[in-house]
Amino acid sequence: MRSWNDPAPAGAPPMTDSADPVEGADRLAAARAAAVEHGVGHYARHIFLCIGPDCCTPEEGQAAWSALKSACSKLNKRPGAPPIYRTKVGCLRICTDGPTAVVYPEGTWYAGLDPEGLQQVIDQDLADGVAVEPLVIGRNPLPRESRADAPGSGT
Ligand code: FES
Fold first, then answer.
1. Where are the alpha helices (DSSP H) in the chain?
2. pLDDT in tens, 52-105
3. Exposed end of the chain (fewer CB within 10 Å): N or C?
4. Pocket residue to mutate for ligand 1, from 59, 93, 109, most atoms within 8 A of Cβ
5. Stated pTM of the model
6. pLDDT band at 155, cuts 50/70/90?
7. Ligand 1 midpoint to CA 6 (Å)
8. CATH of 45-139, one of 3.30.870.10, 3.90.1300.10, 3.40.50.150, 3.40.30.10
9. pLDDT at 116
């Protein structure tokens, strides 16, 4: 199996294909099992939190991540609450006034998530689906329909 660090020979298949179909199927089966284990397929909300290093220091990012993990764990224990997934990322390409984050399905982008700001996003957006307007820096909901007619799509 080729790794991401190996140079791709001309005409090589995409990395998701294995030269050995059984090995490839086994790898995907393990990944699917991990997805099930992590509740993929049941989430109603997903927050991506940038933990720096350019929008905030790694220490600030790590502290925000710890707070977010703890908060999501509590929120996900609420009876009947829509499950929330959280993911830390290395950069959302805003790179200023962080930590930054984006919450789906609405696609609400945030910056300035100091401890108080992040708590507001947790209490208001993650818990109740209401954006924290003073911290919103953009909106980008992702529609399910085709974007072939979107500006810049080449059509
Ligand atoms: S480092 Fe956080 S947005 Fe780029």
1. 21-37, 58-75, 115-120, 127-128
2. 999 999 999 999 999 999 999 999 999 998 899 999 999 999 999 999 999 999
3. C
4. 93
5. 0.81
6. very low
7. 28
8. 3.40.30.10
9. 98
